[in-house]
Automatic annotation (TrEMBL), chain A:
InterPro entries xrefs: AAA+_ATPase (IPR003593), ABC_transporter-like_ATP-bd (IPR003439), ABC_transporter-like_CS (IPR017871), P-loop_NTPase (IPR027417), PstB-like (IPR005670)
Stated name of the protein: Phosphate ABC transporter ATP-binding protein, PhoT family
Protein's organism: Thalassolituus maritimus
Upper taxonomic lineage: Bacteria, Pseudomonadati, Pseudomonadota, Gammaproteobacteria, Oceanospirillales
Alphabetical list of PROSITE patterns matching this protein: ABC_TRANSPORTER_1, ABC_TRANSPORTER_2
GO CC annotations on file: membrane
Residues of the ABC transporter domain: 20-262
Stored Gene3D superfamilies: P-loop containing nucleotide triphosphate hydrolases (3.40.50.300)
Highest taxon of source: Bacteria
GO molecular function, one term: phosphate transmembrane transporter activity
Gene Ontology process terms (BP): phosphate ion transmembrane transport
Automatic annotation (TrEMBL), chain B:
Keyword DNA repair: no
Protein name per the record: Phosphate transport system permease protein
Family matches, as PANTHER family: PHOSPHATE TRANSPORT SYSTEM PERMEASE (PTHR42727:SF1), PHOSPHATE TRANSPORT SYSTEM PERMEASE PROTEIN (PTHR42727)
Main location: membrane
Amino acid sequence: MSIIENHKTVGSPLSEGAKLRARDVCVFYGEKQAIYNVSLDIRQNEVIALIGPSGCGKSTFLRCLNRMNDTIDICNVTGEILLDGDNIYDPRVDVVPLRATVGMVFQKPNPFPKSIYDNIAYGPRIHGLASSRVDLDEIVEKSLQRAGLWNEVKDRLHAPGTGLSGGQQQRLCIARTIAVDPEVILMDEPCSALDPIATAKIEELIDELRENYTIAIVTHSMQQAARVSQRTAYFHLGQLIEVNATDKVFTTPEHQLTEAYITGRFG
Amino acid sequence: MNYSTLLIALLIALGAAYFLGRNRARSLAGQGESMHSLPTHYGALTALWTTLPPLLILIMWVMLEPRIVDALLTMQLPEAIRTASEAEVRLALSKVHNIASDPTMMGQSDLGSVAAHLVDLEQRAAILKGGVILSVILLGVAVTWRRIQPDLRARGEVERIVRIMLFASSAIAVLTTLGILVSVLFEAVLFFQKVSPIEFLFGTTWSPQVALRADQSGSSGSFGAVPLFAGTLLISAIAMFIAVPVGLMAAIYLSEYATSRVRQLAKPALEVLAGIPTVVYGFFAALTVAPFIRGIGESVGLDVSSESALAAGLVMGIMIIPFVSSLSDDVINAVPQSLRDGSYGLGATRSETVRQVVIPAALPGIVGAVMLAVSRAIGETMIVAMAAGLAANLTANPLDSVTTVTVQIVTLLVGDQEFDSPKTLAAFALGLVLFIVTLALNFVAIKIVQKYREQYD
Ligand SMILES: Nc1ncnc2c1ncn2[C@@H]1O[C@H](COP(=O)(O)OP(=O)(O)OP(=O)(O)O)[C@@H](O)[C@H]1O
Ligand SMILES: [Mg+2]
């Protein structure tokens, strides 16, 4: 299989008044191109699922959205990504506030080797969001509550975050991201290391978070995409093949590659 | 036959036996037998049985032959020498060996006949040795050859022998350490019979000069080791003061900031620093750094001794930098990338990530690295001997000259001495202290590093 010449994403990748707009984004790892001319809009208060076979560039694309790719020396991004109309790849943009605005949750829960409290307080401290200890306490409590973890940890806020179960750790990481008051949350396979019950909790949480945040989630589970997202984007070998409403993608996909993937013919 | 010829013979036997055993197994298999193991296993088995026994015999021979020869020679010595002191017998024997190695002297000494006997003995021993070894080799080949039958479980036997050989190797390492420890302990106990441990550990005067002969004037020596401990501590502290911050920051730069090109150049360069012999550091310290410090000190009106703790400590610190940096580099690299990603993902800068996430995560490992470095510093001798001097001053002033445990061990043992004088034995007591301290440091350091490893595996 190779990339499709002159491909144009089918469905409705663009939309009016989107929160994030990617335009003609190409990503290179050294000589190797990983993303080909992807244009995609992500709307305010929607959950968009990015699906596709392994190695198709979902993580790479997601990491472009808050410039996490900057931490990889050989990675090079072209095209534009506009957050509320401003190009985040503009040389004048500072990645520090950008990453606070566009937060990220990773595949493997990665709590810092600190207490639960300090894990949440890490971001607000760095960005100077709390003016007093009381403020900080409040941010910590609110974030944990939003992440649905407060009741489970309120008695042991000063125990190490690494001592929580995998599912709790992942919710801790979500709480940590929420604590810096982002507008967009990027999630890269946030449930792939979790059991079904912990997964169900996170999915429920994602659904609640949609009220306040814009969420892009990479997932390998089509059921998960169907459960949590409103729109689904299908990637294939670095190209964005199709973007449509989630129920449409899973019932009547427009592109044959999408259909092949969701019917399990490859991937 | 001399030893090198025998070793070559053994090597040839090794190869030949391997092929013999393997081919026999193959030919048996060719005759339709179903062999238990692969032909190579039979080859290896034959090779092992052919070479190991003669090798063991050879090693025993090397250890025993001189003793037996000396015992036989002693019987040949004139009555007068034989009944005299043991020392005289030893002296006579070494004379005999000298004469035997130089035929022109043979007729000139009254020990000439004994020497001739020695030459004769050595010739006979060589023939005997060659004969024994060769017959054991042949016996090994023959017996194993006959044993190679379809139901011989060669694979299992080879594995067992290999296991025993590996075990023996590790046993040698452990036993040597134990042996050293026991002998140091033994001599130290002798020392503590002459000087009380309390005086040794808490006394503040170190002047180990003891009268060599009874009629010599002089004291009985004074063995308070506190000045040595203090000197060691002072120099190690100065060294760590340099090495820990510089080494750690170098490690952080290399693992977190440097591009891969820089890293590829800088890492080997740092390791070269670790490869410089300590004696080179020593004269660098004594000839360059010490006068330099003295010069600076004098220009600001300080009284600096020409051999200063500061000079030795500084140079030792430089020596230890690569040690600290490469160990810390390892533990910093072991911090999972996902933690850094998590921090960057929250908008933290590189230095915030390093300070608040990477270093705390790597801290136990870094502490372990530092402790290993401390034990290195405490055990270091050459630099201190050359740059810090021999004067056992009890001082905390880094500009003074001090001495350390290791340096004193060297000074105690160079030159003429009796083996049972407290001066000599003191070296063992100091060695014991050093051994215990570094052992404890290493032990704690390894425990810490281990605990840290478990956390991320
Ligand atoms: N750091 C990197 N250096 C070089 N190439 C990379 C790097 N990260 C990813 N790639 C390449 O980019 C392509 C896309 O990788 P990416 O991780 O984005 O895929 P993915 O869709 O997230 O796959 P998965 O579902 O397995 O997570 C792959 O071919 C991969 O080999
Ligand atoms: Mg991925």
